[in-house]
Amino acid sequence: MKNTVTDSLERAAHPVHGAGLGLRRSFIGAVAEQPPDTVDFWEIAPENWIGVGGRYARHLSAMTERHPFVCHGLSLSIGSPSPLDTEFVRRIKEFLDRHGIRAYTEHLSYCSDDGHLYDLMPIPFTAEAVHHVAERVRQVQDILERRIALENVSYYAAPAQEMTEIDFVNAVLQEADCDLLLDVNNIYVNSINHGYDAHAFLSALPGERVVYCHVAGHYVEAEDLRIDTHGADVIAPVWDLLDRAYARFGVLPTLLERDFNIPSVDALAAEVQDIAAMQRRHAPRSRARTADV
After folding, report:
1. CA 213 to chain CA centroid, nearest Å
2. Is residue 253 part of a domain?
3. Helix (H, G, I), strand (E, B) or coil at 19
4. For residue 2, is it within any domain?
5. Helix axes of 165-176 and 127-144: crossing angle, nearest 10 degrees
6. From CA 245, how far away is CA 228, in angstroms rounded?
7. How confident is the model at residue 225 (pLDDT cuts 50, 70, 90)?
8. Of 43, 60, 152, 53, which Cα lies nearest the Cα of 104?
9. Owning domain of residue 21
10. CATH number of the domain that 46 lies in?
11. Cys-Cys link to 124, which of 65, 80, 160, 241 (CB 3.0-4.6 A)?
């Protein structure tokens, strides 16, 4: 059933509400005909759909006409040393406007320099990089005529590090005056790989800037190395961190990402329902916090 318990609370502060699912081409035909009633909103990567025609385009239009959608981009390359691809940003704007997309988010990373790198590369945690990224974010927001949100990303090296990850993320959000896509799995993965306290990191984030959350699974390469794959079920410590996020910030719209080893739509819908169940448990506390404010 729909997660209606938190609808009125979340609609006031966020572009979407409830529990969402990343839409993939492999199952769009099935969900276009019979969308799971546990899914409150959907997410797509615009790069995977811009210029697509035929039945995929028809399915997507049918979905965006009936359901709330957000976009999570792959190719903006906000931290790249190369000039911003403003023509690409304009194509993104046209896509967002045409499909009535509720929010546009991207990765706090880069994926291009002299050509596309086909991976998400870590931006150096430096004051210079903060200024560089913030200026590019402002340029993107001007072209799109809307705010964007940046996701805290997983990373496996920290080149030329001058500040902590949390200080870097917060400095970019503050200087750029943009929003945050809170990826709970990435906090957990990074806390293992880089040896910090995931709960302390979460608590230091600006909850008022969160537009929605991501949860996902990952791969255990070694005891001290996790790989962010989106290819497995969400594990207990990540659920616990999401629970802590709700306790800290109130109920947040939350989306399940699954990119590899994709199970049946029913199995995905069941995991989305786990998000909704957690949201219902936290709803009374969130309402009380709102009333106090």
Report:
1. 6
2. yes
3. strand
4. no
5. 40
6. 20
7. confident
8. 43
9. 7-292
10. 3.20.20.150
11. 160
